[in-house]
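debug: dumping io for the single-chain case to check the tokenizer round-trip. Nothing else runs in this session.
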Amino acid sequence: MTVKNKILLWAMLSSFAAFAGSWQFSALGEAVAVTNGEAVVSLGGRGGVAISPMHDAGNGWECPVAANGAVRFSAGATPLALPESATSLVSRVFVVASATNLEERSTLLFAATSFWLAPSPYGGLTLAPAMPATGSSAAVDGVAGAPVPANGKFLAEIELGEPLPAGDVFIGGHAATPLWRRGWQGGIHEVVMLAQDATPSDAQAVRAMLAGYWRLSNAPPSPFNAQTTLNCLGLSSHGFYTTMLITL
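debug: decoded output
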């Protein structure tokens, strides 16, 4: 893959996070560098692992762009993925996203099956697996079947039917063909992937931090020792739990 027209979403990982098998990518702190005359956007990272477009722009594929604290996708955009060398197993994925166009089969994430927009029992469209399997599920702001908001950010939580290598998780669409036009239509602000041995307490800490930091509706309360849990997972809270003592 050439450098031209790539968007690199740098991992916010410490060496311990890579060892633990947890991955975190955030569209915070945009910085633009110029390589071979082309703007290459690197986002938010500490560490050297990146997720990048699966395909170059062309042959029907469009390239996602970084703007306003998100990576923006269109229906024909190529998804992002980790390199094949990312073989640590992940079982749960959190995505802070927003939708600019709610359309059935818009795929937020592909991992053995598409997790895409489908009719919600409550009206509108929700996030659901295309081929439900034992153990697979999707929730919007903590509620399975809840409609994806037409405006504003939401937290998608996806539980994979079985653990998969991190390099087999595709963000923002399906990598098979642009002709399907099934890419996510909107922005992706942050992605957290948890290892197969992550506990419910780990998931609770990540869920509360992401919802609280991004000021999502119905954010759950943070569990006790949430920052310690995130530290053990090698994940950043972006200073959400930082306290400041002011002496007058």
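debug: round-trip ok. The longest strand covers residues 153-165.
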